[in-house]
Amino acid sequence: MLGEVRICNRSAPLEAGHNIKEKVMVKNITLEAEKRERAGKGIARSLRREGRIPAVIYGDKKSPINISLDSNDINVEYYKGGIFTTLCDINIGKDKHIVLARDVQLHPVSDRVEHVDFLRVNKKTKLAVKVPVVFTDEDKCPSLLQKGTVNVVRHTVELMCSAMNIPEHVEISLEGKEHGAAIHLSDIVLPEGAELVNNPSLAVATLVPPKTAAQEEAEEAAEAAEDAEGAEIVEDTSDEEAKEEETKEE
């Protein structure tokens, strides 16, 4: 039985043998847009009342174009994930613009999309993008086969690559990895034409051996001690409040 793949800063580890590959959109997103002549807060509020949101297309040494998008359409695409790494075809009447979302502003309460900045791209455009890290060959990993865990500390990697050839993900093989092995950015299989933005020596994950019975008992004892200390603090606070009430009554 394989060990676990543990995501750091998550409440629970993924189950052993879990398929870590994320399904990422590879087809271009298509959005219908309307050109807007004016900008400003008043125009933006008016658009939102009509079920639309403001956006802008810029770059490629051309003048920016202010547009509006259907609010539901852009929210659906945004919450599918991958909007920052998936090319988008924006149709404005008969004109089509190939773009990539570079900035999305969300409402502070509802988290709905309120504004999007799109960058024009072409075959010559190179830019930095973050793509998911995918682990492979779990069934060939000695650490996992011995019930170890993979503590993942870096879920995405920043690459410099062509806008027309953004990878869905990058892969790291776990084949042959023993307990205590560290996985670095340098272990990633980079697609053709892509370069790492960050230092290759940065850690992506570590292989951790399973806890011994003694370690688990020590952790349980420490947790129990913390719970007991917390209960004592609550009790002390209650006693102090009671004394204050008695003093007021006197």
Q: The biggest beta sheet, please?
A: 6 strands, mixed, barrel
Number of strands: 14
State the fourth-level CATH superfamily of the largest domain: Ribosomal protein L25, C-terminal domain
- Estimate percent helicity: 10-25%
Strand order of the largest sheet: 2-4-3-7-6-5
CATH class of the largest domain: Mainly Beta
Report the sheet-strand fraction: 35-45%
Number of helices: 4
Measured distance between first and last alpha carbons:
69 Å
Shape: flat
Q: Report the CATH architecture of the largest domain.
A: Beta Complex
Round the Cα radius of gyration to an integer and report it: 26 Å
CATH topology of the largest domain: RNA Polymerase Alpha Subunit, Chain A, domain 2
Mean pLDDT metric:
83
Low-pLDDT stretches: 7-25
SS-based structural class?
A: alpha/beta
Q: Could you state the order of secondary-structure elements as H and E?
A: EEHEEHEEEEHEEEEEEH
Total domain units:
3
List the helices and strands and how they pair.
Blueprint: E1 4-7, E2 29-35, H1 41-49, E3 52-59, E4 62-70, H2 71-80, E5 88-92, E6 95-106, E7 113-120, E8 126-136, H3 142-145, E9 149-152, E10 156-162, E11 170-173, E12 182-184, E13 195-196, E14 203-208, H4 213-249
Parallel strand pairs: 1-9, 2-5, 3-7, 8-11
Antiparallel strand pairs: 2-4, 3-4, 5-6, 6-7, 8-10, 9-14, 10-13, 12-14
